[in-house]
Design goal:
heterodimer; A: mainly beta; six-stranded mixed beta sheet; 10 strands; about 50% strand; B: mainly beta
Chain lengths: ~110, ~120
């Protein structure tokens, strides 16, 4: 089975900061990688599919990149509404999620 | 616009079967993958499995495969989760979701329903 790791597990940044979250797969998953945003009490939201395709309605400050085993989610200018936990998920095998990265405002 | 709504008992006793329904409005089940996902308290997201409407084929997480059945009821625009022999570790918020392709399996989600396993 494919294992997914994320780093950091949590971060605190200021409004307007550039934020980077990394995700690593235990084996090559090509570009079969999604990113989700999950706010407490809400349904998770698909932000990015196929490693870099921004979903409709997702602000352009979110960007996904990477392929193979190493992936990155970047928020170019952190906004208060971006406070959430972010998960990567592989879609190449059994849809395993990463452990999540909790993002807060400093 | 499609909407998904989970429903079912909020409390299930240990060793019994957890049964949930996801009711779909605003679209048909045709040509989509229909999944269940859960989040245990303080934990991350866990994909449980899916049913693909067109073929009825299913896929399950290996860790739950022996206890899970996901099925659909076409005429009622519903699909179902059955999780047998539950324990306290199955306490979680359960979500249903749909996607057109495996690459975006979980594009649209329901709001989730909390199920507690306790005697």
């Amino acid at each position: 089975d494919i294992q997914m790791t994320q780093s950091p597990s949590s971060l605190s940044a200021s409004v307007g900061d550039r934020v980077t979250i990394t995700c690593q797969a235990s084996q090559n998953i090509r570009n079969y990688l999604n990113w989700f945003q999950h706010k407490p009490g809400r349904a998770p939201r698909l932000l990015i599919s196929d490693a870099s395709n921004l979903e409709t309605g997702v602000p352009s400050r979110f960007r996904g990149s990477g392929s193979g085993t190493d992936f990155t989610l970047t928020i170019s200018s952190l906004q208060p509404e971006d406070v959430a936990t972010y998960y990567c998920q592989e879609c190449d095998d059994l849809f395993t999620f990463g452990p999540g990265t909790k993002v807060d405002i400093k | 616009q499609v909407q998904l709504q989970e429903s079912g008992p909020g409390l299930v006793k240990p060793s019994e079967t957890l049964s949930l329904t996801c009711t779909v409005s605003g679209d048909s089940l045709t040509n989509y993958y229909w999944s269940w996902i859960r989040q245990s308290p303080g934990k991350g997201l866990e994909w449980i499995g899916y049913v693909y409407y067109n073929s009825g084929s299913t896929s399950y997480s290996p860790s739950l495969k022996s206890r899970v059945t996901i099925s659909e009821h076409t005429s009622k625009s519903q699909f179902f989760l059955e999780l047998r022999s539950v324990t306290a570790a199955d306490t979680a918020v359960y979500y249903c979701a749909r996607g057109k392709t495996r690459n975006a399996l979980l594009r649209t989600w329901g709001q989730g329903t909390l199920v507690t396993v306790s005697s």
